């Protein structure tokens, strides 16, 4: 790790190495440190309207949908997402495009000058760096994805124009709690009094609505103020007497409904034709992303039970068409591997287990121990890495087979890099 403080002429890689070294913890809960630094350099005084997007799953797809619909209307938009798949630059977009390294370097240099002796985690640097970039570009709207939970996440230092919760499920239990009520309460911490709070979850824990009422947030809840319904090839969305129907997009309809409601609440909903065009062209990397047609290969970042359930539904549709499903999975050590594997077990014909050598990555031997707790009749093979598995598995696939590579952002990144090679 770099010990010397980088400068504006240093490389982005040098800066990222430095950021990893200046705080002893990967995650540090609490807002005081981050807010103090942000105030010192004036990041919280901005003309941009900020939409905070929290949730267990669906933040990235909801943000991408909002981004597309706002850009189509001519607004300038800054989007902050994490983690990245291949390059750090993916985390910050201006008008849908990544930025050159120097924008990030300039932002980090500004933070280094303004933080004094205050330690920041890697994620906190990234969040403040994104806010600095958005202020520099003076964008109309900022879409800010919450990193972990909500209440004590670094993104929660801002004053949102609206707050969004996509879904609520169990993940990061060591920080957020082991019930949906505890997780929901933490995520509701991004609500503000008198400010729109849109919740897309289909079974909203009472702790979310209790907190919203307590602080007098302006809540719009799935199943109450808005609804959606899925059909074989289409889905419909209803809000305040308005009902629209569209072809099914490449992302979950639930997240589209949440995004449409958010814009409708803010009087920013475009016309039906514009919505239809945006949804038709909407693609989000790593979310049931097709890597190849021959053989048929998909990849997905699913890494918790809720995202695994959604992935299982997508795979079941392909299985109904006569495809055999081969699943290559590699996961992080702190995830509920047994629960994830159980959610997908019924639609998988062959399991390929692989290890991850990245930070927090788990060995294939540990993944195999988790698989022992899953009652499966599928064939199981083990590989030390995603690359090793792909080398062996791809030549074996025929035209009636599909391969899904999933389990973490690192797993998807490995698959994408493999394809690029």
From TrEMBL:
Membrane-spanning intervals of the chain: 401-419
Highest classification ranks of the organism: Bacteria, Pseudomonadati, Pseudomonadota, Gammaproteobacteria, Alteromonadales
GO molecular function annotation: dihydrofolate synthase activity; tetrahydrofolylpolyglutamate synthase activity
Role summary: Functions in two distinct reactions of the de novo folate biosynthetic pathway. Catalyzes the addition of a glutamate residue to dihydropteroate (7,8-dihydropteroate or H2Pte) to form dihydrofolate (7,8-dihydrofolate monoglutamate or H2Pte-Glu). Also catalyzes successive additions of L-glutamate to tetrahydrofolate or 10-formyltetrahydrofolate or 5,10-methylenetetrahydrofolate, leading to folylpolyglutamate derivatives.
Keywords on record: ATP-binding, Folate biosynthesis, Ligase, Magnesium, Membrane, Metal-binding, Nucleotide-binding, Transmembrane, Transmembrane helix
Chemical reaction(s) catalysed: 7,8-dihydropteroate + L-glutamate + ATP = 7,8-dihydrofolate + ADP + phosphate + H(+); 10-formyltetrahydrofolyl-(gamma-L-Glu)(n) + L-glutamate + ATP = 10-formyltetrahydrofolyl-(gamma-L-Glu)(n+1) + ADP + phosphate + H(+); (6S)-5,6,7,8-tetrahydrofolyl-(gamma-L-Glu)(n) + L-glutamate + ATP = (6S)-5,6,7,8-tetrahydrofolyl-(gamma-L-Glu)(n+1) + ADP + phosphate + H(+); (6R)-5,10-methylenetetrahydrofolyl-(gamma-L-Glu)(n) + L-glutamate + ATP = (6R)-5,10-methylenetetrahydrofolyl-(gamma-L-Glu)(n+1) + ADP + phosphate + H(+)
Pathway note: Cofactor biosynthesis; tetrahydrofolylpolyglutamate biosynthesis; Cofactor biosynthesis; tetrahydrofolate biosynthesis; 7,8-dihydrofolate from 2-amino-4-hydroxy-6-hydroxymethyl-7,8-dihydropteridine diphosphate and 4-aminobenzoate: step 2/2
Residue ranges of every copy of the Mur ligase central domain listed in the record: 53-217
Protein's recorded name: Dihydrofolate synthase/folylpolyglutamate synthase
NCBIfam families given in the database record: folC (TIGR01499), PRK10846.1 (NF008101)
InterPro entries membership: Folylpolyglutamate_synth, Folylpolyglutamate_synth_CS, Mur-like_cat_sf, Mur_ligase_C, Mur_ligase_C_dom_sf, Mur_ligase_cen
Domain Mur ligase C-terminal residues, every copy: 286-409
Pfam families for this protein: Mur_ligase_C (PF02875), Mur_ligase_M (PF08245)
Assigned protein family: Belongs to the folylpolyglutamate synthase family.
